[in-house]
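pipeline/complex-builder :: batch 7 item 3
reading input block
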Amino acid sequence: MKTNIALAAASLTALIAPNLASAALVLDTGTPTSMTMGSALDGNDFYAAEFHLSSGSTINGIQAFITAGADQPGDTFTMAIYGSDLLTNRSAQQLFSAQATYTADGWTGLSGVNFTSTAAGNYWVALEVGGADSAIGLTLPQTAGGGTAPALAFAFNSGGGYATAGALPFGVQVDATTPVPLPAAVWLLGTGLVGLGSRARRRRHN
Amino acid sequence: MLFSDSRSHAARRPTNAFVLSVVTAASLGAAQLAQAADPVVFSFATVGDSRQEPLAPDPTTLLPNNTGTLLPQDKQWLQNTKAFSRILRTVATEKPQVLFFNGDMVYGYGRPVLPVVTGSGSAGNGGAAVTGTPVWTGGNPLGWAGQNTTATIAPDFAFIYTQYAYWRGMVGNTFETGTYVIPVPGNHETQCNSTKPPYSAGTPNPNCASGTHAYADNENAFRANMGDLITDLVTNARFQTVTGSAPLNANGLTDATAPTASANNGPITGSQAQLSYSFDIQTSAGLLHFAVINTDPSGADGIAPADWLAADLAAAAARGAAKYFVFGHKPAFTYNYTAASGTTLAPAGLDQTATIPYRNAFWHVIAQYGATYFCGHEHTINISQNADPTPGTTLTNTPYQVIVGSGGSPFDDKLVGTCPSCTEPALTAPTDRYYAWALVQVHASGVVTLTANGFSDSFGPTQTLYTIPALQ
């Protein structure tokens, strides 16, 4: 009996565990196809893309498609997450910020971000060059748009605060883990199994 | 490793895109990290032509909605403050040691004749007070002290000097952020156009001959307003403090070493001291040589001083110079930005028919030393490679000409129609109407790279327009 219960529990775990959380790109604006023209990421030019989280989520990684421009491998910049009101209240809206290092042309990013949002809603991911950064002019090549999870909007900050910018499709990805609600039947099954286990224990005890 | 091991398997399951990108980044990383071993040992930015146009400003600089007028500040001081200040702000973030400004920092175009000493006043700070010599010599305003101040100054003097002062104020902070500004004279500094504002065809400037000609008075004004930046290449009161490098072997700061009339300098008449000049910077990548030339000297409009440059570069070569950078105002090869519109633009630089032999002599020197020529005059950005056009030349290299006359002056490639219903012209290059500048980096290996950044006439995000991996 003990063996049967263990098997049932293992089966249940195997059944539901992968669905406890689902990692996916919640923002993917696509991979640039042309390197000839791009936006300069420097101390005077910041960029942001808006994305939506359907529920409280953990952001695992942020990546941007970056080429050297005037910079060299080892130069640094900042990746940040802002709340939905970035355009009107940037300083109060920053939720996460970390320094990233440009190492090579292509996708450059932060791993192990582990930033957990508290609620569903719209957020912005921003690429900036702050006072502690060393980038003097990285380049964000333009994508053709699209991607698996297009941005809701783009914004640009040239010193006066962020403002929406229409055609600004730079390559950026946000990878997040979103908890998946368990269906009611799973809870019923679990309750039944707990009951069976309890009954078996009682029998053994008796 | 992209994800932390402490999280669940599901949380660690990356998407295919992420896996692919990490693999790609890793494979590219080794090659790129190799570049990190080639650090930048010296860098400079360069741009020109920030002056505004009183009669025909670009409609995109008018308020509101392309139909109004210039901002009062730009209307009075004739500068595209918005575009040029943004360029300066972004250049500051690029942290170059020097910014070379390739001419036309002021609208100018008058003739700022100085009153002369009429009495026996004392020298003041402006030099010896000799009857008949201009007061305020040396460019020091304190030179008025002890002079005959009853003399009347020409209105052009006030018109031009206030524009210089505004531009100097604009670049003042650039020094404080670690970038020294080196000025290059342009045609709007050295020449007078008899019918340009505030004058007109009906009421031409009485002090200027018909047409557009350089005058010693205008060259005096350039020295008066820029001379402190140039003489510092000798006195080094500020250059090394700002840039971290000492200026070496300055040439052309006095009449004795500046260009004079010769076969390939043209029939120069006025002093070219501090209008064509040069200096060296020693780096771990070798000796860098920088030469500034006046492409519109008095007596020789539209002619680069090729003989002087040849001697100057030869002297630098004898010192062991490894790289040569030359800065002037007018291009040696006019960029035809109207090609897409089916038009052939008349030569607007040193390549005008009457001066072609001088142009050829000039470019022969550039090619001989494998130099790079930075200029402005055409209000756009264009980078080209040009062979020595001298008939019978044996040189086969194609040095770069970098036009960055895109510092704020009205774009040469004009909007079509009447604004606000005007439209963009057929652009020969997508960057024809971009405010732009170039950043040149000298690496420890000796490789010289160029990155040109800019933003469109709608003042959108700064974009990387060109990257040249091996300029020299």
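note: Chain B touches chain A through 51 residues (CB under 8 Å).
queue -> next item
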